[in-house]
Amino acid sequence: MAENKEEDVNLGANKYRETQPLGTAAQTENKDYIEPPPAPLFEPGELSSWSFYRAGIAEFMATFLFLYITILTVMGLKRSDSLCSSVGIQGVAWAFGGMIFALVYCTAGISGGHINPAVTFGLFLARKLSLTRAVFYMVMQCLGAICGAGVVKGFMKGPYQRLGGGANVVNPGYTKGDGLGAEIIGTFVLVYTVFSATDAKRNARDSHVPILAPLPIGFAVFLVHLATIPITGTGINPARSLGAAIIFNKKQAWDDHWIFWVGPFIGAALAAVYHQIIIRAIPFKS
């Protein structure tokens, strides 16, 4: 009876098959890969599991910390007299990429370390997690982002409003189409990297892959930021864009806000389709 009352610590957040850890894909002793069944659309049993709510809390806290560090870095850049006297665009890109690397590493075994509704959406389309869990994750990610941006504003209310609050907008010289395209391609790069770095099929062949998974994901975020900060400030994460827009709450933050939801979701969908149909179609064993 005691065993029935204790949650299996070896399964943890992966008690239900639909979870998709971003750095801890399961290994087998003989390294042979067996295709897992797709996650069910609804998994009512999740709602009575502590691991389900623990995973949501982990997503909330990770997104909170992500917004707190990255928005503070953006504010520090904009307060400086020149880019040379601050971390510069490269420093902002490193802040985003480095935080994703650290947070995926910390939360992969709990929630999968999504920290991004677009990532969650892509994994849901690939049937790696249930709709129940996907919606719960997205809600917790958005709440965490709002709280993270709110804490930054509490620290520097005047400069926060004056310097744009880290909100994503399409910068002058670019059209809305340019911004949408940048968000689609940037999110495709990120979600494609997530799929490739966490593919259990690769893990069956290369045992080092899950250990290194957070590194290419964080590096992809860094590179996308380098490329698209001049265009949109780089969203590729609807929760990040929503949190900053709600706390900043100025017209310019909302005018183009749809781009930072539509673009990432399209990019995530394209990455999921590409990975599942093209990449996963390559034979694993003769």
TrEMBL record:
Membrane protein topology class: Multi-pass membrane protein
Subcellular location: Membrane
Keywords: Membrane, Transmembrane, Transmembrane helix, Transport
GO molecular function, one term: channel activity
Chain segments annotated as transmembrane: 52-77, 89-114, 134-152, 211-231, 258-279
Pfam family, one: MIP
Top-level taxonomic group: Eukaryota
PROSITE patterns reported for this sequence: MIP (PS00221)
InterPro entries named in the record: Aquaporin-like, Aquaporin_transptr, MIP, MIP_CS
Family: Belongs to the MIP/aquaporin (TC 1.A.8) family. PIP (TC 1.A.8.11) subfamily.
The protein's name in its UniProt record: Aquaporin
Gene of this entry: NtPIP1;1
